[in-house]
Specification:
The chain is an alpha+beta fold. It folds into 3 domains: about 160 residues, Immunoglobulin-like, CATH 2.60.40; about 140 residues, Immunoglobulin-like; about 120 residues, Immunoglobulin-like (Sandwich), CATH 2.60.40.
């Protein structure tokens, strides 16, 4: 390459570099990076007893605070005084304080005349004040109402002229995702959404659910009592005597262990409107050790959000609970029935009668059995109860000695007679069923019905059977 060409290319390169440098110099102050440095927003988390969040100011000395979150004295519990005294979410407070302590960023300015460029003066910024139990300030800092790109924020500590740009998720952990210059964080973001405190899960000794659609119906009712066989232990038992199958204590424990996951989608102002608690349709009572009782009451349904309004006896706010989740603990006693509720043991089955329309099979498996018969007995172990039937209309769908019924007798036990009635509805695909002993009727799924009463040719004794 000729010297002349090299000289021209060098001039072009110098011009390009000069253009880039000039462009950088033209960036506004809020986008210019000067140097990297820690924010040094230090404080003792254990001393924090009050968290105040504000926006702008009424005047220089009296900032306008949106709300405060206060820790009880003594005790670790936090509350939101301006939101009906709602219990605050400890995890959200801990995460926010941790984010403040660990925040790092880039130095952007050290001149009060530039505060307005970053929106970190008192009239524009979000203000965060952390105080101790005596309301002495531990830390005060400002978050600019003007963002730096998609995730950047400008931050200034009280009494300092230094402005930093940080990507710490401070606004996000304040529950704020909107336009920083026009919107304000909502105080309900800080409210705890647990319907029942997680630590109470292991204290429940009584559970009762009641449905109140026209009349009160005790749907589920279990309690812990001293075990007659060992008074140093306790056992779970039903409070009613008309249930068709035995209780599985482990299923009760599993249900109660889910209490920490009973979370609402939103906390609401109890005075905002009528939530329908004057005419509730469901209620659950949880009796705790020591005599305390927690009452959960379901009011009206919010069609727009597909949710149920929920009131909890010791909580000052109203909760909004997704309808699909409400169904998870709108339970009846069948939730706790043992697996294999008919107590089927193929090797101990003395008698089996299967009646399906015009077909009837009378069998004595202890004397004669074959593989398909043993398979059918194992199928009987899969009896699944989806719910108890409380409405008289549903209960009428099953009658004694109808089209489908079973008689089962185990060794050393009385016969069990089980009647299966009609389908309850095409939507649920469930059949009405009842033991012929006067206990509560119940529903079984369609697959169980088919397993019991279809393909009954397998019950016919094989001609070659010699067992």
């Amino acid at each position: 390459m000729k010297t002349r060409h090299i000289f021209i290319l060098a001039i072009v390169l110098v011009l390009l570099i000069a253009g880039v440098v000039f462009q950088q110099l033209q960036k506004p102050a809020e986008l210019t990076t000067e140097e990297y440095a820690p924010l040094d927003l230090s404080f003792d988390s254990a001393q924090v007893a009050k968290l105040q969040i504000g926006k702008g100011s009424g005047d220089t000395d009296n900032p306008f605070f949106l709300f405060a979150v206060i820790k009880s004295d003594p005790g670790p519990a936090w509350s939101i005084p301006d939101f009906s005294g709602a219990r605050a979410d400890q995890n959200k407070i801990d995460q926010f304080l941790k984010e403040i302590r660990e925040a790092k960023g880039e130095l952007r300015a050290n001149d009060p005349s530039l505060f307005s460029d970053f929106a970190v003066d008192k009239d524009q910024a979000f203000q965060v004040i952390l105080s101790d139990k005596d309301w002495k300030s531990l830390l005060t800092f400002y978050i600019g109402a003007k963002r730096a790109g998609a995730s950047g924020l400008f931050v200034r500590q009280e009494g300092s002229n230094t402005v930093y740009m940080t990507h710490a998720n401070l606004l996000g952990l304040m529950g704020f995702y909107g336009d920083t210059e026009t919107e304000k964080p909502a105080m309900d973001y800080w409210a705890a959404l647990d319907l029942v405190k997680p630590e109470d899960a292991g204290k429940v000794e009584r559970l009762k659910t009641t449905r109140m659609n026209g009349r009160e119906i005790a749907a589920a009712s279990v309690t812990r009592e001293a075990d007659p066989a060992d008074n140093t232990k306790k056992r779970w038992k039903y409070l009613r005597a008309d249930l068709p199958f035995a209780l599985d204590a482990e299923k009760v424990r599993q249900f109660l262990s889910s209490i920490p996951n009973w979370k609402a989608s939103k906390a609401l102002d109890p005075k905002a409107k009528d939530y329908g608690f004057a005419k509730p349709h469901w209620q659950m009572k949880l009796g705790l050790e020591g005599g305390e009782e927690i009452v959960l009451t379901a009011g009206a349904e919010d069609e727009e959000s597909n949710a149920v309004y929920m009131q909890v006896s010791r909580e000052p706010v109203v909760f909004q609970l997704p309808r699909y989740y409400f169904q998870n603990f709108d339970i009846d006693d069948s939730k706790f029935f043992v697996d294999n509720p008919l107590s089927i043991e193929p090797e101990k089955t003395v008698k089996l009668i299967v009646h399906a329309d015009a077909n009837e099979f009378s069998l004595t498996p202890k004397e004669k059995k074959w593989d398909s018969l043993v398979g059918y007995l194992n199928d009987l172990k899969t009896l699944t109860v989806t719910k108890l039937l409380f409405s008289s209309e549903d209960q009428k769908k099953v009658k004694a000695q109808g089209r489908h019924w079973l008689e089962i007798q185990m060794e050393g036990a009385s016969p069990v007679l089980l009647d299966i009635g009609n389908m309850i509805s095409e939507q649920t695909k469930e059949y009405a069923a009842r033991k012929r002993d006067g206990t509560e009727p119940f529903a079984i799924p369609e697959f169980v019905f088919k397993r019991f009463f279809e393909n009954l040719d397998r019950l016919a004794e094989p001609k070659s059977n010699t067992s």
